[in-house]
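Cross-check.
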Amino acid sequence: MLRFSKITSLTIGLILAGCSAIPPTSSEKKPTLQSTLPPKSIDINDQGIKQVAEANNQFAIDMFQQLYKEDSKINDNVFYSPYSLSTAMAMIYDAAAGQTQAQIRQTFHYPELSVLHNSSAQLHQHFNQPNKPYRLMTNNGLWLQQDLQPNSAFINNVTSYYGAAITPLDFKNQPEASKNFINQKIANQTDDMIKELLPNDSIESDTVSVLTNAVYFKGDWTSPFRLEYQPETFYTFDQKNPKLTMMSGNRVINYFENDTVQMAEIPYKGDDLSMLVILPKDKTAQGLKRLVNDLSTTRINGWLANTSVEETAIKLPKFKLEKSYKMKDALSQMGMPIAFSNAADFNIFNNAAKLSIDGIFHKAVIQVDEKGTVAAAATGMDVVLVMDSHTAELIANHPFVFIIRDKKTNTFLFIGQVSQP
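Predicted model, tokenized:
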């Protein structure tokens, strides 16, 4: 029996081919899960914050629909952190120029660079506030080939606005040791929920840099659910229809319903974060496809604006999802192929060497039970040298979509689909 819910999301790791540095030893003291930027209050009415949050949310929906284009996704679970991916890409975006920068901006919907940097810094600080009734932490890292001279403006921006820790490594002579060291650091930052962000052969001797982002969240429901004693059927599209332990409870929450969907917003302690559960009324595969294809930030914001506070009887399955993605193909198809090609234009080092992103690796894990949620996510981006008022009822006994969001800024931290709990 799960005692709480966990979500682990690992954002982008950027690997560039280049020179060498010696990785610290694996005996290094385990770091605390905290930001290098000091926390402070956030102005939720700031237009820059709204622009960056909306860009993140629009990318979340775009990526969800991109992943869903594969027919197998209708019977598969989906889970990732758009915030992790967007934040990691924002760091390398600072070093991009020309069409490389333009394509990244279009794909991630970034605002003007100064707005992106300043607002990202505020969000980073906001998400890393201490003394909350939940744990939400983000960590950014920049791993550089030790004998290369980095661009000072780039270093200043990723440290000042993203709180990135700079670490020299010897990719050239010790690619495997470097990979293992980064993976261990990410494991530390996600409370061991994500242990192998960078897969075998992801780091090679031509790697010159890696950018990483890790997100960790652990929160209890404002009111815990009770577990049902009798397993109930969860109706899957492949007709396997497993018997699952369901959790249920009545609570007064934000609730929305129209002819096609039901949506409930289930708060976590502190009321800063919540899970949106979006359940299509059509229980067929076509119903879920229609929901995903029609999703948009405008539609979700409209549903949120039209919620009413109602006593709602909720029934959800306990579930655990663990997903790994190689995002290179998906992002290329979404409109930024140049970043992965010989034509890429990134200015990370002072020399004139051409760099491109070799791979983007993303892992995310979530555990949800009657007490709450624990989540973590991480992304690794590989950059290489180019050799050239009534009681409502929501019973989630068939596939549904969920979003974990920060309520103050309306930032989507995690998004997923439960098809096979």
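The chain has nine helices and 18 strands. The first helix runs from residue 47 to 67. Passed to J.P. for a second look.
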